[in-house]
Amino acid sequence: MSEHPDSQALELLAPAKTAAIGREAILHGADAVYIGGPAFGARDKAGNSLADIAGLVQFAHRFNARIYVTLNTILHDAELEAARQLAYDCYDAGVDALIVQDMGLLELDLPPIALHASTQCDIRTPEKARFLAEVGFSQIVLARELTLQEIAKVRAAVPADTVIEHFIHGALCVAYSGQCNISHAHTGRSANRGDCSQACRLPYTLEDAQGRVVAFEKHLLSVKDNNQSDNLCALVDAGVRSFKIEGRYKEAAYVKNITGHYRRLLDEILDERPELHAASSGKTRLLFTPDPDKTFHRGSTDYFSQGRKADIGAFDTPTFVGLELGSVTKVGDKWFELETAEELANSDGLNYLHKREVIGLQANVVERKGNIWRVYPNEPMHTLPGLRPGLAISRNRDHAWELALGKKSAERRIGVSATFAETATGFSFALRDEDGIAVAACADFDKQPARHPAEAENGVREQLARFGNTDFELNTLDIEWTQPWFVPSSLANRLRREAAEQLEAGRLAAYERPLRKAAAEPPARYPEETLSFLANVYNEAARTFYARHGVKLIAAAYEAHEEAGDVSLMITRHCIRYSLSLCPKQAKGVIGVQGQVRAEPMMLVNGSEKLRLEFDCRACEMHVKGKMKKHILKMPPPSVVPLTFHPRR
């Protein structure tokens, strides 16, 4: 089997909350799965036991698919040994790579397991990407905010054996990943340690420099969800080879649907471009039609791929409103009627917008009258404010769709070519799979001419094609004999079963894990000589790493509680001024407006929380400024292991 990295292989990388969901991801077409281990993953409530991960690895490797474990939080000194041990445990479980944020890990005695640089490493520039490739990362996950042109520049700057990974679907962090400390500042829960409180999804009132209200209680830091369906060819051309779906907190239905959707799109590209191939083996057959709009999203955006756009925000609501069905035509005391061309079902989830609030309801019973549906909601009608004729109704839970995804919804099979032949003492059945693995099963048998020669070959073909619950399906079968022989069904079945078992074992034996990439010598120099708290250096090993690579001044991570004043709690390419048409660059050349709009600071207010917005127009970035709450500042810095803290010298 070919070994990564292969510049012509396209990898569809799916998330897994659990090992069971990981299996479904592979069956639905994933070439690789990323999953949290027992600790130190950037989704602290999505951990899995090593035994479960080892089982998933065995399953994945049958299809030449890969398993990556997230070890991508920043680590306290007291956690380094536990993290090192976890790396060895993952390696012993057969894991293919670790996804890493903390550079301190590279100073430890790690197993020869491949390392991937997490998006938490904030990889935005060709210089940073090249540095990470030179210190031993074989795959790097780019910042979600990059344009196609910026991705291409990164690709051009890194060695050919470095795989570029990019998010193509799912929820978007409004801040550059790894550059958001607002959760820790306000709640003590660190996003860099897998425990984000999602302050970005809260409603805020926006005030200008004079204290005037510009927007009232809008979700101004909440952006729509990522969907790169229309940009996959352009991403391939820009150099992306691993296409990542977000969602380690998502349930199986989401993973099945979104993985199946992108499997179809990537297969279309592979059909059109024979120089490319899938990174794993086998073909997926979906037993449903994927539709990304059916599962949770906050509206879709391709973010900055094609450049800055004004409509990336999900300002009205951070919830899933789903697809619009139609409008209300009539309202009764226990029901309302809805005109729609769609099929409805009992237990569908419906909703509508009332005074900027999404009102949800469940359809208890639905009755069809042509294009009109009478809906009896679970909720009493008098508790549904604003429900009146003309109101638009959307569906965010399609019950029939969910039932379909709750059943078996995909199969994955590896194509084999077979030869059935006579031997001196009986018969043999040889298999060769799409990866070139070849096996043969033989049986002694006293050959006798077939009584019905015209039917003998068809009978053998029918028996030998029945691969049933194995991973294989028959593409071609050659029969090589000097005359039609009598072949009992029991013998054909035994040969097929033995050959399939041999092929399964042969595939696992031939599987090669990618090895840790050697770091460049002498050590590569980091692109900068000073690091602020935004570099997330939280342990002495990370300090040693950066010092060894030429950094002279290193500040402690925000979690070390050494930043008491106002700092950039969030750095984002999303600009509220731009989204509200208040950007000075937008005003250039507009008669009567030019020179009137300045990028003055603004204020976000949520209850007693106040955050100052500053605008770096040269970099086209917005900084959300604030300070750590006093009671959090006084708390011991976060770590899993109980520690005694001493005053700094």
TrEMBL record:
Gene Ontology MF terms: peptidase activity
Domain Peptidase U32 collagenase residue range list: 395-507
Keywords: Hydrolase, Protease
Keyword Hydrolase belongs to the record: yes
This protein's record includes keyword Endoplasmic reticulum: no
GO biological process terms, semicolon-separated: proteolysis
The protein's name in its UniProt record: Protease YdcP
